[in-house]
Amino acid sequence: MRQLIILAFVPLLLLAQLPQPEAAYRSFTRTPYGTVFTDAAGGSLYLQTERSVLELVSSPGCGQYHTVSPDGRFIGFKSIGPDGLQAPALYDLATRNVTLLHGPVRQAGQVSFSREGSIVYSIGTALHIRRGSSVETADIGTYANIAAVSGDGRFIAYNDGNDQIWTYDRLNRSSAMVSNGRSSYHQPQWSPAGNALCYSGMDASVYVAAADGRVSYLGNGYDPVWSADGASLIVERRESERHTLLNSDLYRLPADGSPAERLTDTPDLFETSPSVTNGELLYTTHDAPVLHSRAGASVIDASAVTRLPEERTSAVMKAASPAVYFEMPYTHQVYDTPDWYNGHSACGPTSSIMVIAHFGILPAWNVWCSWPSPGHTSAYGNYVCDKYRFRQIDYVSVAQDPNDKDSWGGYGFMWSGGSPYSRMVNYYGQHGISATRADSSASFFSLVTNEVTNGHPYTLCNGLTTAGHIIVLNGIGAEAHTFISNDPYGNKNSGSYPSPNGKGVSYDWPGYNNGFRNLNRIYWGVSVRYTAPALGDTIVDDLQFTKGFMMNNAPPAGMFGWKDMNQGFNGHMWYVKTKKGDTCFAQWRPAIAADGNYAVSAYIPFSNAKAARYKVYHKNGMELVVKDQSPVKNGWLPLGTFPFAKGSAGYVRLGDGSDSTGQELVFDALQFAFSSPLSVTHRPEAAPSHLALEQNFPNPFNPSTTITFTVPVSGPVTLTVHDLLGRTVAVPVRSHLDAGRYDVPFDGAELSSGVYLYRLTAGGTTTARRMLLAK
Q1: Which pTM does this prediction carry?
Q2: Given 2.60.40.1930, 2.120.10.30, 3.40.50.980, 3.30.750.24, which CATH number is that of 681-773?
Q3: CB-CB contact of 562 with 549 (8 Å)
Q4: How many whole angstroms separate alpha carbon 463 and alpha carbon 485?
Q5: Which residues contact residue 671 at a Cβ distance below 8 angstroms, ignoring those fewer than 6 apart?
Q6: Does domain 539-676 sit in CATH 2.60.120.260?
Q7: Which has the closest alpha carbon to 239: 276, 202, 286?
Q8: I need a labelling partner for 133 at 20 to 30 A (CA). Which of 174, 422, 563, 664 fits?
Q9: Please, are residues 760 and 688 in contact by the beta-carbon 8 Å criterion?
Q10: pLDDT for 178-202, tens place per residue?
Q11: Domains in the chain: boundaries
């Protein structure tokens, strides 16, 4: 075995932050001109010669799925311009020139070579078979990014829009499906003799279709390549735990389905990206930028290596306006979680929290995060790893983070008794979300596309990282087979990973290439449905965190200091034990449609709190209302009638501070019911000498009348209406008024016929009159 170090510079920060390594370079092919390869992002093509490493092409996606002609002279690749237009292209290693095989279009495919001289690529739904100056076309009815031609040039393998593998027979001008339709597949490649076809499942399974139509399942394997004799495939197999790569080795998989042979067994090396050229096996490792070779005929002098300049970076595609996109809150698994927690393995719970936050199911629970400097506040990162309670479930199951620190929340729930694969659906369900998991199956692309198109966030486990990664899809790019996501680890297109912001990141579907980093594999996904309870404008419920309800969960309260039960108005309530000072408090902030007096009531399922201290902030200031919650069972507790201005400036606050400690104080829905308008007409006159309340007019009335009064000095004024039992039925005026005469309209449409008392209070004096409502 010989080693060639092709790049010694790796940023120290990247090494320190990545919990799982990734090969810096891949896809090596020997040619008469040197060794061709690309980088991890597929954004550049390189040639390593005896004395130097040359960057041949730099454009988004140029190295992804690139091919080399059988004679080693040409590199086939896709050229993607800044405008997103694509063209199949050739790089001539002899002349160092690039030739476009077709003009730029919205959808162009990769380039494939046959031994007999044909060059194949797709333009839209048409296959183009070029030989010399002649071009043959065949419309296959679907866009296929990879169209692999057999060695003799007769057959072309491709996958359709449902990720099924087909072959097109140039002789008969007909297509036939090869795959079984039970799963999703991609990346077909012919054996050297062209008598067998290998293709991969989205979940890294490997299949071989023989000439007689028999299909063999060869097990799991990444990046399969044919051996020189076509009798087997070389693959990488991985061992991982909690989305962390533990080891990888190379295996030989006989094409007839015989048992696999292990080629490497090196716990200290993570082999990957195998390739075969003229019987020589080339591969690199995830953990070091080193090229390994076996059974090579040529001698490589490691001392002749030239390092790449540090400032060279891979080309990055800029996303165009998406075809579909909906906003979602973003949380980073490393940078938006508490400083004490190592979130490198938390892509599953972090993605779930983004979905839960999208539906407004949990309140913001702010935590200060020191990194990146100078620091910031994260609204939902606490839920990933800290204890909380919701819907009578305590999220206190413990699992260790990569630093062996005890962690709870979503991370503890998913990893203490299983994994995100086995527990994410339950986690969503316990938060009131209907969820369904789908493994990589037939029409998986269509399933995901339909979910996102209809506005449903889709949680997807994929192959962005070597041990698997979970993201949330919330958009579809302008380009075919590109999805937009909230990636909890950042933006892998940025050149560093993790990176601080993974909101709205574009990634390409496996088998396709629009210049973005590729998802590589699709393992499983979760679709979700959630319907928020429909409430009237006059009610603010205790789960309406985005529509008026706020609960304080800052330390020392936290989300574990609050307790809840699945009963009360709309099936949920919060409660805490009263204490001397406010620790837990809540606010109900209604959206008042119009100025007016509003009767405020609190829903109480049950309680033993005898001195609940409600503070009502209304148009004229604040009033403290102390109420005994204990007599009410599953009913409304009236707090009084108060003047509120249009909008959301007014609110009600309730805290757990009380002189009577240890009682269970309930926080449920509040109702703000319109009682009467604030429309008081002020008639400027000479200042009256005394308080006067005139007889309403008309009287009797049905249903409206006008009450006129005068006040001698400025100050608080209250006008109330009572029935003969003394109950307050309306508060037409509760305001600070200047001295003068006022006309107040009163509407009794909601009252029964009868005699009512209206009472005026101002300056410490009260006067009253009677009126008759006759319907």
Answers
A1: 0.85
A2: 2.60.40.1930
A3: no
A4: 14
A5: 538, 539, 599, 600, 601, 602, 603, 636
A6: yes
A7: 286
A8: 174
A9: no
A10: 999 999 999 999 999 999 999 999 9
A11: 324-522, 539-676, 681-773
